[in-house]
Amino acid sequence: EDIASDRAALLALRSAVGGRSLLWNLTQTNPCSWSGVFCNGNRVTTLRFPGMDLSGTLPLGLGNLTKLEILSLRFNALNGTIPSDFANLVNLRHLYLHGNFFSGEIPDFVFNLKNLVRLNLGSNNFSGEISPKFNNLTRLSTLLLGNNHFTGSIPELNVPPLQQFNVSNNLLNGSIPERFSRLDKSAFSGNSLCGKPLQPCPGTEGGKKKLSGSAIAGIVIGSLFGVLLVLLILFLMCRKKRGIIDSSGAAPAKQVEAVAPGEKSGNDSENNGSDGNSAVAAAKVDGKNGKSLVFYGNVNKPFDLEDLLRASAEVLGKGTFGTTYKATIDMGMSVVVKRLRDVTAPENEFKEKIEQVGKMVHENVVPLRGHYISWDEKLLVYDYMPMGSLSALLHANNGAGRSPLNWERRTGIALGAARGTAYLHSHGPASSHGNIKSSNILLTESYEARVSDFGLPYLALPTCTPNQISGYSAPEAPSYSSLDEEGVDLPRWVQSAVQKEQNNEIFDVELLRYQNVKEEMLKLLQLALECTAEYPEKRPSMDVVASKIQEICNSSIEKEGVSQQYYSADLNALQA
Ligand SMILES: Nc1ncnc2c1ncn2[C@@H]1O[C@H](COP(=O)(O)OP(=O)(O)OP(=O)(O)O)[C@@H](O)[C@H]1O
Description:
By secondary structure, this protein is of the alpha/beta class. Its main location: membrane. GO terms for molecular function: ATP binding; protein kinase activity.
């Protein structure tokens, strides 16, 4: 097997499914320059033909591409089964067949492709049961099978790396394995499944089952806990009285007296999801003193603390510094409340710093609207950003839908984030953000970027050990940690992939649809590398970064315009 047999396999593919759309220069003996074909050394390693109008049945022959690592045929009109010689593609790591009309069962040889990391078969007509043999694929981290006709139940899958899993809109029944109970409901919807995260399975709750030993132990412990709780409440009430007496003449700083049981220990994992009574409402107010929220700027106070405490609250997530809630106030207004945990900075110092954060006003920074501070409770109020974060949009469940982020939007977001950060660098109380990451870049309805969470690392620093901050900050910063959840040093990894000329590993596959802006993509990548240089003097200032991104935006907009013209010329020619 060599490049000639790879070429023959590609020609077989072209004549079977892509005669009209794979417009390659067939006089070339080396296929590596054909569009969508990528080689390493002298073998084909990647094929990317997303949305290329391929139709028909895949031919035998692709199995000769024995060095193939990535195969993307998503969003075409391919039908039939997966050809049997795919069994030879033992180096395959990513297989994307979603958005086609493939049918039949998942063939057994798929479970021998031991290097598979991502498998997306979503939105096809696959049928049969989901085999427990997926357990053979010990590297699998993404398994997307939604929108097919799979039947039976979900097997126990104990593949440690498996994180992304979706079987929505199939014909599955039975209970969801415990291992998947923490996934989002949407991963299972559109089936007859039960168990967490969906509704409980019949007979597992409130049933007439005999009480097991552990249930009895649970009841005994629960009762003891109840007694302790009553004692705790009595204790808190006594302390409250003392507090009022003690505070005569002292700063009235004890309005938020207590929080819901369990919350004080920082253990609010049960609050995941929406809960009308949880969260913000968990903070009790001593109404007599009426100490209220402090708002910044010359705004009329939009609501008071009592409104906030009455608001229905939904947990948006748990971050480095506490839990973030969306609170919907009675009058229909939504705000975001960040309930900080473990702040050890003295109250006055905290107040001073947070007020400086409140003075930061820029169109690319999420404004801090107000705060509530007492000795044991620190709430920060932000505008609610309905489009959520860049991270959520980039990693949205990629079942059948395409990412709404085209190249133009992405560069626009990068520009906004750079401008926001440049502003913070020139005006901030501390000179850097300290926790830049995509979940801290929030978006307006028109996809304008706003940087959020500014200043928190400096307020919470005494309790933050470096590896608790998961965003990016410069290597010389005290809180520096560039390791992601999987322990990968992202800037290093990108640098090494660029050195090895493996840019395709870095670019989101979604971007391959915008080949005409590849030059801009490379420029942006180069800029990102400069920004993450180890030595500060080698890094461009954020003002320079913003203006370079502006240039990149301008040139890709020009190109978009040109390619649109070509595109309509093509269309006209076709119609003629
Ligand atoms: N103002 C806001 N509007 C809408 N969503 C928000 C807002 N602020 C935060 N979020 C979202 O709420 C979730 C939790 O945010 P939070 O800031 O607590 O954690 P994080 O950003 O994941 O981590 P970190 O605390 O390290 O910044 C994230 O998905 C974030 O994108």
